[in-house]
Amino acid sequence: MSGESKEISLVRSAQTGGLVADLDGEMTQRDWEDRLVVQLNLRSPLMAKSLLREMSKAFGLSRKSPVNEINAALHALMMLEPKDLLELQLMVQMLCVSRQSLEIMGLAATSTITETRELYLNLTARLMRLYTKQLESLGKYRQKPQIIRIEKVSMEGNSQAVFGSTSSGGQ
Q1: What pLDDT, on the 0 to 100 scale, is given for residue 9?
Q2: Considering only Cβ atoms within 10 Å of each terminal Cβ, which end of the chain, N or C, has fewer?
């Protein structure tokens, strides 16, 4: 890639079927955003643009970033398979927290000053706890409550019926 500026577009990977970044001089930033809107079933291109901008900033990416770094960020997001806008927002946050904790852990590993290393490790631990909470939130959000509707109850003899809320499954 010489000094020319190329736009980044999203295309389907022949191997994984997921979206990956591709350099294409014919694609515009708007085309990239439109593809993300379609892929994630978003209703607003403005939301796609905003989320991409937030994720890029948090990851330290720009149009001048290597394509493999952009691919890695997009691949990580798409592998989480967001189902709606709320999941997408949470997943962008999760990826940013995960990446930041790993970067800080790397700083801790190379620090020669004990106090600085401890500070980095404490920050990493806090970010990892946050990531765990985000993961739990995603799991709870994805676990839709199961509603069972009983249309008719027949009772014979000395039978008893229990009505009300009950829960099942491991608890």
Answers
A1: 52
A2: C
